[in-house]
């Protein structure tokens, strides 16, 4: 068996290469490279796909989160609840507004924020909760909305890893008052460069976000607020329009391969496997397992030519960047334990069943 990379985009890109090239040529001929027809069309299409009225594209996922918080008026002196286990940008978006990220412990099975622990973290300064649909698994979004409504705070979904996921048919990225996502190339819907988007039903917030991403301007050379430059390129929008057509099909492929791995690995060693929850449609952005022998398993697989990754080796509260918050080891024991035991196995659309079986057999061999 040829070595198995952690991720290959080749099968996806081979399938749509001609369409991507056509889109690229169209943008070159159009000579409009920023905020043009392709961006406008993609925003319409992605809003419709997400089941919301507005989509505002931006330069990346971090900006999407930051702008979402800013248009809600969140800043210095405010607190925002975020999961103790997530990708660092979720926290950084909060910090960038001047607000304080307030971490809440996660559930050890789903890795997502534990809604039963949110109540205790809410103070008079709390303005919002950011649930993250980590690894393609929807957080407990309906529960989160209930808490937020009761406490009169906002929900802002971080849907960077959840494109196409849903809970009881309602798409992730449509639950919050305003929601953010990333189109980083490795995401389920990924560009060929950086990109991000904000989704919302609220027209006022949408207009504010449009201004903020473009120097605070709605009318050329007229600036109502001090904004930033965070715009999606036409060429990325054109590529994303092509890829959006295939997103559901590719998510289905991910799910099929995930079920195959789940069957192969059921009951093996001390492995904890990612599982679908009853009412949630997970899109397996990553297929992550947990084992107390993570580092040995990783090395064993490496020797078999199977590349793996670790998402994430260190939780945000123990990162140097957050040393000023004064967290010590054991502040969030579940999040910290996940970081010590988690391993991401290869899984991508277009991966063959033979490749998946080779990964599964490799893992089994290790535990034998
Ligand atoms: C959960 C999560 N939030 C936010 C981001 C930030 O997105 P970007 O890399 O596009 O800034 C990412 C991607 O890295 C992510 O995985």
Q: How many individual domains? A: 2
Q: What pattern of helices and strands is seen along the backbone?
A: HHEHEHEHEHEEEEEHEEHEEHHEH
Tally the beta strands. 14
Helix count?
11
Give the strand order of the largest sheet, numbering strands 1, 2, ... along the chain.
Answer: 1-9-8-5-4-2-3
CATH class identity of the largest domain? Alpha Beta
What separation lies between the terminal Cα atoms?
Answer: 21 Å
Largest sheet: 7 strands, mixed
The fraction of residues in strands falls at 5-15%
The ligands bound in this entry are: pyridoxal-5'-phosphate
Radius of gyration: 21 Å
**What structural class results from the helix and strand content?**
alpha/beta
Low-confidence stretches: none
CATH architectural type of the largest domain:
3-Layer(aba) Sandwich
CATH superfamily of the largest domain: Type I PLP-dependent aspartate aminotransferase-like (Major domain)
Question: How would you concisely characterize the structure shown here?
Answer:
The protein is an alpha/beta fold and 368 residues long.
Structure description:
With 368 residues, the protein is α/β, with parallel strands linked by helices. It has 2 domains: 10-104 and 111-241, 3-Layer(aba) Sandwich (Aspartate Aminotransferase, domain 2), CATH 3.40.640.10; 246-367, Aspartate Aminotransferase, domain 1, CATH 3.90.1150. Helix content is 40%, strand content 14%. It has a 7-stranded mixed β-sheet with strand order 1-9-8-5-4-2-3, with helices on both faces. Helix 2 (37-50) runs parallel beside helix 8 (234-265) and helix 3 (61-71) crosses helix 7. The longest helix is centred in the last third of the chain and has 32 residues, at 234-265. The protein is globular and about 65 Å long. 49% of the residues are buried. The model has no long low-confidence stretch (mean pLDDT 97). It binds pyridoxal-5'-phosphate (PLP). Pyridoxal-5'-phosphate is lined by residues 60-62, 86-87, 89-90, 132, 158, 160-161, 182, 184, 194, 196.
